Amino acid sequence: MRDVHRVDALPGSPGSGTVLAAWKRFVQGEDQVPGVRPLVAISWYRCRDQYRVDPHLTEVPMAVEEAGHSPEHDVVFAELGFRAASVASEVANVAGLVTVTDATGRVLAEWGDQATLSRATEANLAPWACWSECAAGTNGIGTALEAHGPVLIRGPEHWCQAFHNWVCAGVSVRDVVTRAPIAVLNVSCWRGQLPAAAASWLANAVTRAQSRLTRRARNSGAELVAAFTQARPRSRAALAALDTAGKVVIADETASVLMGVPAFTPAVDPTLRWKPGLPELIGAVRYASRQADRNPDWVGSTQIFTHLADEPTSLSIRPVFLAGHLIGTLVSFGAAEGAQLPSADGPAHPPAHPRRVVATRGNRVVLLPLPEVSFAESEGNDVWLSTDQGRLRAASAGLDKFEGELADAGFLRVHRRYVVNLSRVREIERGGKGELSLVMDDGTNRMVPVSRRNVPAVRRALDI
User: Mind telling me which PANTHER family this protein's record contains (predicted)?
Assistant: First the structure.
């Protein structure tokens, strides 16, 4: 498995003529991009067809609003700022600059060569400007927010022509539980090569910041288990402890059945919590987290369907804090205490299904109708698709993101490494101890294992 914190040696410039020619054709509407790396080709697709960024943009916009940050995020910013300042003189010696941004791509601070800083200001590579992909196209900062792992963007690989003279290397720091980006550290040079030590600078900074987040996740997980253990003897309802992202840390036997997760088994590794098979529950917990951030005494209730009954189940949500910081909630099934959560007006409708999945074959962007995808398999941070056109790499960075994009389109997570298209399940093979394997309709009858904790969700989905 590839180490996402490792940053390979950073070369200076690719075959810029080939990439520039491909960029010109792609901007004009062609999809073939010979000589362009898949990461860049996928980014170009997002910029052109999803974000609709003007490739002739000459300066990026300022951030619309200031986002709020949790205390652990502030710790990450401080750590990255310290690392950036410590290498600022070395970066300045090669006419470069180093930048720290938040999860929206908003530049928080930068250091480096004064002449390069002045040139960067012309394009708004300066504090409070927004360098997300949807605002600035393919670039070291924005593309690092979209991808897992280090990102190198050189010359005409940038989506906007005005930035073709820049070489940038960025890496995001991500929440160890949700995998959502928190910040980006980026090194940029104008018409030159990146410092030879840039790879180690980025790797060391991310490793230290992630270690702090891992310790925080371990502490918050232990506190949620303690809160669950303390509350359970006093509770007549089924009980579970969830983090602020809606992932399960621990649940009793009844709650585990309702959510399709293991019972009484807190995750030893704080990065491997369980995602309940109840999208409504995840939404309710995230709403409760926002309310509790504003009012620590807030307690709420709502009703959700659990797939085990024709009628919705009542539940109560109570926030849990550690040192004044919200770390999760205790969810009681069958209880109805606290303020009623708002419900959508009228009947709930699932979101519109994506019309296609974006993948790559060599230097081509391939747009796949959903029925052509049999299943997705993760290999490290890459997602590989078994399709009617063969095995292709998905544009989604990480199986969690792929699952989230297609959760309401008939795709189901059946294993930590597999998401399957339920309409492409041909047969179900039962093991002697209750385990399941799915025989997929993919031309080779590939068998996909179902992990033990996902068996209840698969049985419900396939009505078996």
Answer: STAGE 0 SPORULATION PROTEIN A HOMOLOG, TRANSCRIPTIONAL REGULATOR-RELATED
- What is the end-to-end Cα distance of the chain in Å, rounded? 35
- Which domains are delineated in the chain? 16-215 (3.30.450.40), 235-340 (3.30.450.20), 356-462 (2.40.50.1020)
pLDDT of residue 67 exceeding 60, the answer is no
Global pTM exceeds 0.70: yes
| 241-256 burial code (b ≥16 CB/10 A, e <16) | bbbbbbbbbbbbeebb
Average pLDDT over residues 278-295: 88
Q: How far apart are CA 198 and CA 188, in angstroms?
A: 10
- Cα dist. 280→169, 257, 302, 316 in Å? 39, 16, 10, 13
Q: For residue 234, give the amino acid letter.
A: R
Please name which of 259, 258, 255, 275 lies closest in space to residue 267, comparing C-alpha atoms.
Answer: 275
pLDDT of residue 347: 37
Mean pLDDT of 226-236: 93
The whole-angstrom separation of Cα 318 and Cα 332 is: 8
What is the predicted pLDDT for the residue at 149? 84
